[in-house]
Amino acid sequence: YAAKQAGDTARRWSPALDERAGEHTRLGGEIRLALDHGQFRVVYQPIVELPSGRVAAVEALVRWEHPQRGLVSPVDFVPVAERNGLIVELGEWILRTACHQMATWRRELGEQAPDRISVNVSARQLARHGFAATVAAVIAEAGLPAPCLAVEVTETAVFEGGQAVVTLNELRDLGVRIALDDFGTGHSSLNLLQTVPVDILKVDKSFVDTITEAGRHAVIAEALIQVSHGLGLAAVAEGVETAAQAEALHRLGYRLLQGYYFGRPVADPNFALSTAVATQDHMRALRP
Ligand code: C2E
Ligand code: MG
Ligand code: MG
Ligand code: MG
């Protein structure tokens, strides 16, 4: 796995730096420059289907190759870009890059291409009138069928209702899939499933971390797969790092898994898909 790990060395910088007065303002200005100088990259992480081991979907994740700081994690700059509004421009660039990549896979791989690409969308993007129109324009430009795109939104981004939920309904009308990200860590998880159009539940890594121990998280993970199936939603387990976790999730009925065990996010789009081949043996071990 060494080669795979080398592709995802984004790290957090020190909390001291984070908290220093003015740091966010400075970073905000640097994001503007970084957009102009093409310092952002999109990396791709496979979402694997059990028991086949096929890469059913891919999540696009943004990276910042900062000339001085090195690879900066989105955890550090996405919130800053949200606050100064640059997430709108950055987000549109990420969306366009990811949709064009997905269209390329479809052209080059045909039936072997993943079913969809998943793109993270922030609260600020969802709150804009016209976001759905932007998405419609981007997928049209890429020549991508709408169901081949999923937008990942957090519970927090849609909790307050308003324009965010209007936008999600517009996206749903286009045929774009909606994934609730980090599910179970936000405000009012289950109620949201009635008020927001959702196709995919992404069960948060925190439930996966302790899945192999008999405890609350395992019980919740089991309940969530039942809720998903009962409501006709797809469920993706996030942050699967070990074979034991994959086996436990498979036993509970999870069919879509994402995590370092299957593949790290990587810049090379074809390498992101080739991990499926590497995991065939893992998949065989999961078969009954
Ligand atoms: P997320 O959308 O929940 O993405 C999953 C995060 O978990 C990614 O971190 C991914 O690299 C990491 N991950 C995947 N598998 C494993 C695993 O097995 N173990 C561990 N420890 N981590 C795993 P990343 O790329 O650093 O992104 C962090 C968060 O930043 C994302 O969480 C998302 O909320 C946000 N983000 C990333 N890219 C974008 C983007 O393009 N737009 C927006 N708005 N937000 C983004
Ligand atoms: Mg996500
Ligand atoms: Mg997530
Ligand atoms: Mg998460």
UniProtKB/TrEMBL annotation:
Ranges for domain EAL: 24-279
UniProt name for this protein: Uncharacterized protein
Parent-protein residues present: 439 to 726 of 726
